[in-house]
Fold this sequence. Notes:
By secondary structure, the protein is mostly helical. It contains three helices and no strands.
Amino acid sequence: LIQRVHQVLAVTGIETAKLCGDDNAQAMLLEEAILNACEANRALKQQEKSARKARRQAAASQRREQKAQAKNAAALPALKKRAWFAHELTVAYLVEAQKMMRGHTALIERGYYERIVVKEKDAALALQEHLLRMEEYRQRIARLSQREQHARDDIATEQLKEH
Length: 163
């Protein structure tokens, strides 16, 4: 304890030689020095705690930003691929519908009219579903492209601020 008091006093600038007497003023001086050292230590710990918290928050924010950018970058090619497949399916359904229309007359002559109407309705519904899906994919791609562009703009702005 005495060694610790000497360390505290050394930090506060009070020499132990001044504290050798039994004077009441010297005891008060010692008490004040210890209280000042404790307060300074408490303030230093609080500053360190605040600095650690700020570093943690900054790192977490940076990780969230990187994760969001990676997610957007990863999602865009998959959506483009899905949109391409939807487009291919739409083309395939259009070709199928054209074939059905060409064969329509021959099948009517053979007496299969009811079946053709059902097939055409099914093809029309499927085509409509695929067109809706394709439009949804186009909208998603547009949103992701817009997000990616905003991210690029933000990065460029940050780089300009740094320079």
